[in-house]
Amino acid sequence: MHCCKKIFLVFLSFMFISLNGCNDSSNATPKLQYADTPPILENVYIFGVHPLHNPKRLFEIYQPMVDYINTHLKGGQLRLEASRNYRAYNEKLFHGHFDFALPNPYQTVASLKHGYTVFGKMADDENFRGIILVRKDSSIRKVSDLKGKSVSYPAPTALAATIMPQWYLHEHGLNINQDITNHYVGSQESSIMNVYLGKTDAASTWPPPWQAFIKERPEVAEKVMVKWETPHLVNNGLVVKENVPEKILQQVGHIIFHLQDTPEGQTILSSMELSHYEPATNTTYQPVETFLAEFEKDVRPIRLQP
Prior knowledge:
Blueprint: H1 2-22, E1 44-49, H2 55-72, E2 77-81, H3 86-94, E3 100-102, H4 105-111, E4 116-122, E5 131-135, E6 150-153, H5 159-171, E7 181-184, H6 188-196, E8 202-205, H7 207-216, H8 218-223, E9 224-229, E10 237-241, H9 246-257, H10 263-271, E11 277-279, H11 286-298
Parallel strand pairs: 1-2, 1-3, 6-7, 6-8
Antiparallel strand pairs: 3-10, 4-10, 4-11, 5-8, 5-9
């Protein structure tokens, strides 16, 4: 019995070796490979929109435009990317993370030192102005009434919604560094909600997000009003990284600049509270550069050192 057991074990060993030897390595199941980062897809260009809205709202408004571009674009695809706040967006932009971007005018000017070129912009410059909101039941009547009060803004580098309103207050006799408490709350919607809920005495934003917000939240318009408006500046820019192929840039520009020519494009623009996009160059933003220099000299520093 013991002998039979030994013979049986030898037989099993022989069969195991034989079967392994017969296996063709070309038919072997391939090993799974793992990596810390996702694979890089060729011909995918990242399109970064600055935090005009919170990320969810931004995707609702701008993903249809990216989808429309991708339908007509040959040789590549765009991928929309949102950022959780202005600081995160600035870091990405100034480190060349985006291939295409829609930055605010301050970010547009700053991006030129980080490998980007202006190729277009939002039209309707008359809408690129700051607005300052107060509650309708507020006792604030003139700018000096804000002394000792609090004001909410989206972010320190939001041009229309922060910098331009702060310049307005400065020109009307308020020291924004000493006379008021500034709250940078992360998004246009948050800034509006802060004054609506009474967390701040005033709030800064700019017309497109204000108009879009009160369409969805009409009860806010019943309690909050626009108290002051600033003069306008050049609207948000469209920039491209210098290594993006010219044939891709030409297509993207053509598609964006003709959105207003189709019903689908008109619907996309309507959700942005915008009539159209238009071609532009670096020199288009010289008035912004001049304004920023004056603001920094008289009010506070804003230039980032990424």
